[in-house]
Amino acid sequence: MKAVIFDMDGVIIDSEPVHASVLMGALRQHGAKLSAGANTLTRFAGMTIPAIFSALKKEHQIKASVEELVACHEAGLVKYVKETAEEPIQGILPLLRGLKGKNVPVAIASSSSKKMIELVVNKLKLTDYFQQLVSGEEVSRGKPYPDVYLATASRLGISPECCLVIEDSMNGTIAAKEAGMFCIGFRNPNTNGGKQDLSRADMVVDHITEIELNDWLV
Q1: Are residues 8 and 110 in the same domain?
Q2: CB 48 within 8 A of CB 194
Q3: Are 106 and 96 in contact (CB under 8 A)?
Q4: Which Gene Ontology terms cover its molecular function (predicted)?
Q5: What is the rounded average pLDDT of the residues 24-38?
Q6: Same domain, yes or no: 103 and 209
Q7: Which residue has the higher pLDDT, 41 or 175?
Q8: Which of 27, 58, 83 is the last residue of a domain?
Q9: pLDDT for the residue 38
Q10: Does an H or E element contain 163, and which?
Q11: Taking Cα atoms as reference points, which of 215, 193, 210, 214 lies closest to residue 42?
């Protein structure tokens, strides 16, 4: 493998529970009736926020526009990142340092907006580790389609089959594999309680620290 591409939410930063909470809050604020324990969002893990709201707006007959829902959601996330987020998921920083030491091209391919990706990377002081930051909102189709991963590989100047992806969601692993990339699934206990279907991944780890660089890089 000649490049490593990271998903962000649930891989770089443990934000999936916050995403879910803020998203549910935005839906309730605009009239959707959802129980606190609902598994409404599980199937959407890894997808772009506009795509999620577009689907749920139809299902729950929400009058607010997708743009209004997205703005409400993003405001909550910005508040969380600025006030609460302090460090990346355990094992990420040593992994990034190792990749930088080996001059391996590294990127983020996330379903979050470009604004959120940049905010997280800056807050966690990870700017120097990434050559590309690519949002699913920059391509025509979000995960589980491969577009964001193919776009990221293109920007890195690396063939998709030479890229290794680290993902924590079903939709993300599908996207990576459909792009022709090697995919490591990270079973984050805070992403759907660690019960995400990662069967499309080439291998699955329970901790980022289990990923050994020398096993994959050429």
Answers
A1: yes
A2: no
A3: yes
A4: catalytic activity; metal ion binding
A5: 71
A6: yes
A7: 175
A8: 83
A9: 45
A10: strand 163-167
A11: 193
Which pair of tokens denotes residue 115?
Answer: 């604004």
Contact 213, 100 (CB under 8 A): no
Instruction: Return the closest-CA partner of residue 177 out of 145, 207, 154, 206.
Output: 145
Q: Is the pLDDT at 180 greater than 90, yes or no?
A: yes
Owning domain of residue 126: 3-14+87-215
Spatial separation of the C-alpha atoms in residues 110 and 169, rounded to whole Å: 11
Output the average pLDDT for the chain.
Answer: 90
Give me 57's structure tokens. 């707006």
Residue 150 sits in the same domain as residue 95: yes
DSSP 8-state secondary structure symbol assigned to residue 13: B
Contact residues for 117 (Cβ-Cβ < 8 A; gap 6+): 8, 108, 110, 133, 135
The C-alpha atoms of residue 112 and residue 126 are separated, in whole angstroms, by 17
If we measure between CA atoms, which residue out of 168, 172, 154 comes closest to residue 211? 168
Phi, psi of 108 (to 5 degrees): -110, 135
